[in-house]
């Protein structure tokens, strides 16, 4: 198995699944999606979760299964801005329901769970308690022990009592509407480092600038420019933590041509300045201590 702490990457052909663990995740990624399934455990914070066309509040113990291609975003409440946010995720192939292995009777509950017609599934606290320690332990394991633990988690979720599992949103499986949101997100991901116009984004989905703004707002409950700025700030925060680049270079690399505007938006999104943010994570588990 492959353990990644610093970033989200697709599941490769050589991995059954990919695990991620943040002991204290301090940034809330902007709206995005993955090509694969993702099981996401979030602890110690409250906030708002967007999954496709569904907007819900989440609490200090949250576990969801996010289906492939579902645009999603987690944003913590202001009261929890400085709270420790422990997060564990597992990503696994979107093709898993088609594997012959999952057609066996013993695996039927897992296959049926993965094929439920929803953007994702939310699990109740009682069910979360049955898998919580295993979710946190999984990134530390490898080999058959990790595979066995992975399938035991999926099985316990798939066989949870019906009243302990709630469907979130609806599943469109490649519909034109879903594809438009993904194309907008992809356009921002590919072009965020330079000047980006609504005309350009609109052209990527065959819509006028005003129409693309209204459409994005209606489908994601988020203003398009707010999303773009959020994405850029998140990338800047990542560079601040993971590299030694001067902060004066990071803003322009993330599409900010005005230093004052960059600092203002960074503080508005993360509650601190870029310099203080780097100092806070200087000895983070995600980055080496370079003071010695």
Question: Topology, please?
Answer:
Layout lengths: L1 E3 L12 E6 L14 E7 L3 E5 L2 E5 L2 E6 L5 E5 L9 E7 L15 H7 L5 E4 L1 H13 L5 H16 L6 E4 L7 H16 L6 H7 L4 H12 L3 H19 L4 H7 L5 H12 L3 H7 L12
Parallel strand pairs: 1-2
Antiparallel strand pairs: 2-8, 3-6, 3-8, 4-5, 4-7, 6-9, 9-10
Helix pairs in contact: 1-3, 2-3, 5-6, 7-9
Report what the structure shows.
The protein is α+β, with helices and mostly antiparallel strands and 292 residues long. It has helices at 108-114, 125-137, 143-158, 176-191, 198-204, 209-220, 224-242, 247-253, 259-270, 274-280, and strands at 2-4, 17-22, 37-43, 47-51, 54-58, 61-66, 72-76, 86-92, 120-123, 165-168. Strands 1-2-8-3-6-9-10 form a 7-stranded mixed beta sheet, with helices on one face. Strands 5-4-7 form a 3-stranded antiparallel beta sheet, with no helix packed on it.
Lateral arrangement of strands in the main beta sheet: 1-2-8-3-6-9-10
Enumerate how many helices there are, as a single number: 10
Specify the structural class.
Answer: alpha+beta
Overall average residue pLDDT? 84
Tell how many strands the DSSP assignment holds: 10
Estimated share of beta-strand residues: 15-25%
| Computed Rg | 20 Å
Q: Could you say which overall geometry the principal axes of the C-alpha atoms support? A: globular
N- and C-termini, Cα separation:
32 Å
- Approximately how much helix is present in the residues? 25-40%
Q: List segments where confidence is low: pLDDT < 50 over at least 5 consecutive residues.
A: 1-8, 172-177, 283-292
Query: Biggest sheet: strands, sense, closure?
Result: 7 strands, mixed
What is the N-to-C succession of helices and strands?
EEEEEEEEHEHHEHHHHHHH
């Amino acid at each position: 198995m492959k353990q990644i702490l610093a970033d989200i990457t697709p599941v490769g052909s050589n991995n059954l699944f990919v695990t991620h663990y943040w002991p204290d995740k301090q940034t809330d990624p902007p709206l995005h999606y993955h090509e694969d399934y993702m099981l996401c455990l979030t602890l110690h914070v409250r906030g708002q979760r967007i999954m496709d066309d569904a907007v819900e509040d989440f609490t200090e113990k949250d576990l969801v299964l996010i289906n492939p291609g579902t645009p999603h975003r987690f944003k913590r409440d202001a009261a929890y801005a400085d709270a420790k946010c422990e997060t564990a995720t597992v990503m696994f192939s979107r093709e898993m329901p088609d594997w012959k292995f999952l057609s066996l009777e013993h695996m039927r509950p897992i296959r049926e769970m993965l094929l439920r017609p929803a953007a994702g599934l939310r699990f109740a606290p009682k069910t979360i308690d049955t898998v919580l320690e295993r979710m946190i332990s999984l990134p530390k394991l490898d080999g058959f022990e990790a595979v066995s633990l992975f399938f035991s988690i999926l099985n316990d979720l798939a066989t949870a009592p019906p009243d302990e599992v709630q469907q979130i949103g609806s599943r469109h499986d490649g519909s034109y509407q879903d594809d438009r949101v993904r194309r907008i997100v992809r356009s921002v991901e590919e072009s965020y480092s330079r000047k980006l116009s609504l005309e350009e984004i609109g052209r990527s989905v065959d819509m006028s600038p005003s129409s693309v703004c209204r459409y994005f707002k209606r489908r994601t409950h988020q203003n398009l420019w707010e999303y773009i700025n959020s994405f850029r700030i998140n990338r800047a925060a990542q560079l601040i933590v993971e590299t030694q680049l001067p902060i004066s270079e990071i803003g322009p690399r993330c599409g900010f041509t005005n230093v004052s505007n960059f600092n203002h938006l960074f503080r508005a999104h993360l509650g601190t300045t870029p310099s203080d943010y780097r100092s806070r994570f200087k000895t983070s588990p995600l980055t080496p201590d370079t003071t010695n």
